[in-house]
Design brief:
With about 200 residues, this protein is mainly α. The protein has helices spanning about 1-25, 40-50, 55-70, 70-95, 105-130, 135-155, 165-195. Keywords: Membrane, Transmembrane, Transmembrane helix.
């Protein structure tokens, strides 16, 4: 029960903060207008590029599944976290933009349904990180490899102009991907003798 409440809380926090960071990074949103051109706006832009990415949302579900420990609990808490994050994201968007919540009903439903589907799978993946052997290795590589693939297929370059915020965000993702994959491989090789000795 505690892990379920934690999953909901983590999802709500992640979704709301992602929406707020997006708003703070935009000079076209009332919340971000006063920060335009400041170091705070640039920092918010980097955070926005990191948090509002598919791999980051996947990492939320995988992390919650890892904390849950078992496949069943991992699936449930992964789905709860992504659904809560999707709802919180659009509720916060509506509040920040001063728009009626009904305007975001379709997006909320669509992303909540996708959150249910992907959250179940990614939660199980997170729980599998605890397993020894190849399955644990592949599970631990899911987020680092997913982030690297997204950087190649859909890099955070929405415009032709490459800004320092984009370069910094890309550097952070690539560094984290390499470190995460390195940790997964090191853990796999370090556990091999122990597994073979059983």
């Amino acid at each position: 029960m505690k892990i379920m409440v934690g999953g909901l809380a983590a999802g709500v926090g992640f979704g709301a903060v992602t929406s707020l960071v997006n708003a703070l990074s935009s000079p076209y949103v009332e919340l971000g207008m006063p920060l335009a051109g400041t170091v705070w706006a640039k920092a918010a832009k980097v955070l926005s590029l990191l948090m509002d990415a598919g791999w980051s949302w996947a990492a939320l579900a995988v992390g919650m599944g890892w904390l849950a420990g078992t496949r069943a609990r991992g699936a449930l808490v992964g789905a709860l976290a992504l659904i809560a994050a999707s709802v919180a994201y659009y509720v916060t968007d509506a509040f920040v933009l001063g728009a009626p919540l009904a305007l975001f009903a379709t997006e909320t439903f669509t992303w909540s349904a996708l959150g249910l589907l992907f959250g179940l799978v990614l939660g199980v993946v997170g729980a599998a990180i605890r397993w020894p052997g190849l399955i644990g290795l592949l599970a631990a590589l899911t987020v680092p490899v997913g982030a690297a693939v997204q950087m190649v297929v859909m890099p955070p370059r929405p415009h032709l102009t490459v800004t320092p915020a984009i370069v910094l965000a890309e550097a952070i993702v690539w560094t984290a991907s390499v470190l995460g994959a390195g940790w997964a491989v090191h853990r796999f090789w370090a556990a091999r003798p122990a597994v073979g000795a059983r």
